[in-house]
Amino acid sequence: MLRNTSNTVEFFIVGFSDAPDLQIELFLFFLLVYLLTIMGNLILILLISSSPPLKTPMYFFLCNLSSLDIVYTTVTSPKLIHIFATNNGRITYGGCITQLFFFVAFWNTEYFLLTVMSYDRYVAICRPLHYTMIMNWRLCTIAAVGTWIGGMVGAISPTTVTAMATYNSSSKINHFFCDIKVLEKVAIGDTTSIRSVILVQGTLLVMTAFMLTLVSYIFIISTILKIRSRTGKYKAFSTCASHLTVVTCFYILIFDLYFRPKSSVSMSQGKTLTVLFVYIIPLLNPVIYSFRNKDVKRALKKVIQELIKSYRKRLEAKGGSTKY
Fold first, then answer.
1. What's this model's pTM, rounded to 2 decimal places?
2. How many domains does the chain have?
3. According to the model, what pLDDT value does residue 323 have?
């Protein structure tokens, strides 16, 4: 038994070794998902940054969400892809704790950011005449920076208590990344501090963010129902439909993964739910916001038309130059 120092402790990530015949398929799947996630979110960021009609608070926060999805999935994807490619699940103590810190930090940030975005939709629908005054750029910048800083600060406590635990010189992590709940299982001795942090901070953070989001949407739905015209109701609902879809998927997976009784969730089911939460949601976010948002589709169509027009001009220029 050895103390947890970077020189003596090493972890082994089991990953999906229980499916040895599917390693190539899983490698290609996770590589494709990772590349599509990066590409989709980068396109959305570039689209928002280059389109004047999208320079609004809602799209500013969406840009932050896409940036978050990129770094969030990057915390675990490269290592997992490397494990599939090399069949080597070894990860150092320092690498494991670093992965844990950034995973928890970006996870916290997503809670905060989705809550801020729900408040933005509340102001837009419930107090439209005061929207530009309330959601000014100073407030939006402070809120965005606060979500990132808050996520980092919130990760210090769980990472610290996990890092201070005692581990064997070589421990198997029956997961595909260094998750705090799995590290708590392989830790030696008293793990009360880790369980306490998971219970208190995790539950407090999740429930606070969920309740604030829920209250925002109670007011939003109440306001929409008071609109007399069907067209007005549809227009108001369409402004928050994308965010509501993302929030619903996010919290369904969270509650299913972390709040169900342990006995009702097998390890394979837990891994599958975590894959949906860690990899599929960041992949679907830009798709949901693109296909359910007229402004984004309009901006994307305009960019594509400009690219086609520019390409045709280049062809005409080349064709003209060959005539002389």
1. 0.87
2. 1
3. 46
Q: Residue 107's domain is classified under what CATH number?
A: 1.20.1070.10
In a domain, 3, yes or no: no
- Tell me whether residue 323 is in a domain: no
pLDDT of 181-235, one tens digit each? 888 888 888 888 888 888 888 778 888 999 999 999 999 999 998 888 888 888 8
Give the range of the structural domain holding residue 131, as residue numbers without chain letter.
10-317
5 found inside a domain: no
pLDDT digits (tens, 9 = 90+) for 234-257: 888 888 888 888 888 888 888 777
Give per-residue pLDDT as tens, 153-171.
999 999 999 999 888 877 8
Residue 194: CB atoms within 10 A of its CB come to 20
Residue 1 lies in a domain: no
